[in-house]
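I am still getting used to backbone structure tokens and would like to learn alongside you. To get us started, please write out a protein record for me. Start from the sequence, derive the backbone structure tokens from it, and show both lines together. Once you have written the record down, we can walk along the chain together:
***
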Amino acid sequence: MTWTLVQLWNGGVTTRMPVAERRAQLVEAALSIAAAEGVRAVTVRRVAERAGVALGVVHYCFADKDELLGALATRIVDDLTGAAADAALEPGDGPDLRAALEVAVLGAWALIEKTAGEQLLTYEITTHALRTPGLRGVAERQYAASQAAAERLLGLAAEASGASWQRPLADLAAEALAFVDGVTLRWLADGDGPAARARLSSFAGYLATQAAVPDRPPRRRRKAAP
């Protein structure tokens, strides 16, 4: 059975749901627990109770707590990446690279400011995984997901502006992640949003110096068909 889950629950049968949707539901349940009580409170049993499903449903969707926490971290990363890409890659008249990068990082920052609790969770997940024997893989996958997302975003920004990176994309993405991590953690501590935005804007300018810009203006990106 690969498309739907059918599990017994108090003598009955749970509602059928595609596995991808069930996983998303369980990650949302884990997020609500972690946001209220911290990462240590997230257990397979607690997630099942919060989602209103049998324990076996969680075990069917996730091999263990390690995989569940990894999915939780990836969900937060994906939300940020989506916000940045949506902001930077709106169809227009071909923005220059610095403009595309600045709009991208500030678009992501707007979501960060609205979801401070979730951002704090990313650091909690990392430190919890590094301190817990057997969970180091969670932290490694978390940063792998962030790295892939940063590389994708930088690639899209260059494409939108017609520029080309002069350094390995992986290196630039790693620098961007380290910088944004630092800015976010400081903001969580001091709450100075304007200072954080100024730092991110300045960093966008630095990144733009690491690319070659074409002599001709880039082509206008087309809107996707409805």
